[in-house]
Amino acid sequence: MSVLENLHMGSHVPEARKKREETLTWIFRLFPILKERSKQFGGTLSGGEQQMLAIARGLMCCPKLLLLDEFSLGLSPLMVREIFGVIQEINQQGTTIFLVEQNVHRSLSISHRGYVLENGSIVLHGEGKELLKNEYMMKAFLGM
C-alpha cells in the first residue's frame, strides 16, 4: 500500500473519517517527508520513515492515548531526535503518550511520569526529570 493508503487505513473509525483531511494536514505538517512520499509504497521507505508512517497511521484515528514501543530501535541519532521532537509536539496537542523505550535519558527528559521496571516489577517511579537525577538510575541505566 502507498503511504497515503496506509494513512487512510488509520482513519477507519467513523469519527476519524469525518476529520480525515484535517488530520492529514496535521500529519503532513508533523512529518513533511510523508507528504513528499505519499504515493510511494510504505515498504520502500527507510526505517525512520516507516516509524514515522506507523506513528502517523496511529494518529489518523484521533486517539486520546498513543502507545509507542521501542520506536527508536535501529534508527540513526538524527532520526531519533526528530521523532522525539514530534512525540513531544503530539503530547502538547493533547494526546497522551505511553512510551516504552530503550533510550532512557531522552525518554525521561520528555516524560511527565516515568516507571522503571526490573524483572517485571516497578522499582522506581516519579516525574521523568526527577528520575534522571536518581542515584540508582544514574548507576544502573545511565552508566554514571
Topology:
Blueprint: H1 3-10, H2 14-18, H3 20-30, H4 32-36, H5 47-59, E1 65-69, H6 77-92, E2 96-100, H7 104-110, E3 114-118, E4 121-126, H8 128-133, H9 135-140
Parallel strand pairs: 1-2
Antiparallel strand pairs: 3-4
Helix pairs in contact: 1-5
What does this entry look like structurally?
By secondary structure, the chain is of the alpha+beta class. It has a domain at 3-102: Rossmann fold (3-Layer(aba) Sandwich). The chain contains 9 helices and 4 strands. The strands form 2 sheets. A two-stranded parallel ribbon has the order 1-2. A two-stranded antiparallel ribbon has the order 3-4. α6 (77-92) links the parallel β1 (65-69) and β2 (96-100). It is elongated, with a radius of gyration of 17 Å. It starts with a helix and ends with a helix.
Task: Describe the structure concisely.
By secondary structure, the chain is α+β, with helices and mostly antiparallel strands. The chain is built from 9 helices and 4 strands. 21% of the residues are buried.
What is the H-and-E element order? HHHHHEHEHEEHH
Question: What fold name stands as the CATH topology of the domain at 3-102?
Answer: Rossmann fold
Give Rg in angstroms: 17 Å
Largest beta sheet: strand ordering: 1-2
Shape assignment: elongated
The number of helical elements comes to: 9
Helix-and-strand structural type: alpha+beta
* Average pLDDT metric: 92
Largest sheet data: 2 strands, parallel
From the N-terminal CA to the C-terminal CA, the straight-line distance is: 45 Å
CATH homologous superfamily placement of the domain at 3-102: P-loop containing nucleotide triphosphate hydrolases
What share of residues are in beta strands? 5-15%
- At CATH level 2, the architecture of the domain at 3-102 is 3-Layer(aba) Sandwich
- Number-wise, the strands total 4
CATH class of the domain at 3-102, named: Alpha Beta
